[in-house]
Amino acid sequence: MTTTQSRLSNGLRVVSHEMPHLGTVALGVWVASGARHEAASEHGISHLLEHMAFKGTSRRSARDIAEEIEQVGADLNAATSLDTTCYYARVLKDDVGVALDILADIIQNPLYSEDELEREREVILQEIASTRDSPDDTVYDMFQEAAFPDQPLGRPILGTPESVTSFSADDLRVFLRSRYRAGSMVLSAAGNISHETLVKAAEKLFGGLPSGESPKAVPAIYVGGPRVSSRSFEQAHVVLGYRGLSYSDPAFYTTQVYSGLLGAGLVLLDLFVGLGPRRYGLALGACIDRTGIPEGACGRHSS
């Protein structure tokens, strides 16, 4: 796969992979700002900020955003991770301009009205409650906390009920100005779009982003250790994790292949069949995966 990369004068990186045989384009903006970039007093603000991006701008109401993207049959969404927040869309090739304009608008011109903020707080509080009721989610949160205790990487992305309800619109604006800087953002697209067209649109729509890079995250220190929940569940969920390779290490891709062989191949199948309900009834499921961070990935075996 051949990609083309440019950088605007404000530092925004523009990356594309032209696929002229397709009738669609997938594109998005990736921001080097996630849960690990939050201070303790900001726990969960990245996720709330992402939610609020769709709740109205100085040019569009929340309904306008939804209707405009649906009128062209496109898909618009966002996600917050430990390292990044991304806003992305999938559109027909002739509607790229619509998607780019909306993405630029929701990232640069959010309103953060108090009514919408209150509604979105409630949505996230329900997400947090749902997660706490799910042993699958709880066991991974406990694993992350054990791996990186008393560090941003060890905190759940969603935040806590106390932190989420404490954020004001001004808190969101301050965080946005600090973290969403062009030098720490990437606009990428793959599909039926030329790099020249993408760069021209980026200069028009994203050229006003503040230049420079956002503050770097504090390096994480892997600790590890046992964590056991005192809550009672119908099933036992077990995660065994360990420190792995950084995703910038060339050998990281070898660990991906290794994880795939174990997690999706006959080895795991034999494990599940051997322990599963048909033989011993000891396991209802098993999986192997890894998460990548700059300091070192975490391999995880769960059942």
Describe it.
With 303 residues, this protein is α+β, with helices and mostly antiparallel strands. The protein has 2 domains: 191 residues, 2-Layer Sandwich (Cytochrome Bc1 Complex, Chain A, domain 1); 64 residues, no CATH class. Helix content is 38%, strand content 18%. It contains 10 helices and 9 strands. It has a 6-stranded mixed sheet with strand order 1-2-6-3-5-4, with helices on one face. It has a 3-stranded antiparallel sheet with strand order 7-9-8, with helices on both faces. β1 and β2 form a beta hairpin. α1 crosses α7. The chain is globular. The relative contact order is 0.17.
Low-confidence stretches: none
Strand order of the largest sheet: 1-2-6-3-5-4
Number of beta-strand segments: 9
Order of helical and strand elements: EEEHHEEHHHHHEHEHHEE
What is the fourth-level CATH superfamily of the largest domain?
Metalloenzyme, LuxS/M16 peptidase-like
Q: How many helices does DSSP assign?
A: 10
Largest sheet: 6 strands, mixed
User: What is the annotated CATH architecture of the largest domain?
Assistant: 2-Layer Sandwich
Strand-helix topology:
Layout: E1 4-7, E2 13-18, E3 24-31, H1 45-52, H2 62-71, E4 75-80, E5 85-92, H3 96-108, H4 114-132, H5 135-147, H6 161-166, H7 169-179, E6 185-191, H8 195-206, E7 239-243, H9 252-264, H10 266-275, E8 287-291, E9 298-302
Parallel strand pairs: 2-6
Antiparallel strand pairs: 1-2, 3-5, 3-6, 4-5, 7-9, 8-9
Helix pairs in contact: 1-7, 3-8, 9-10
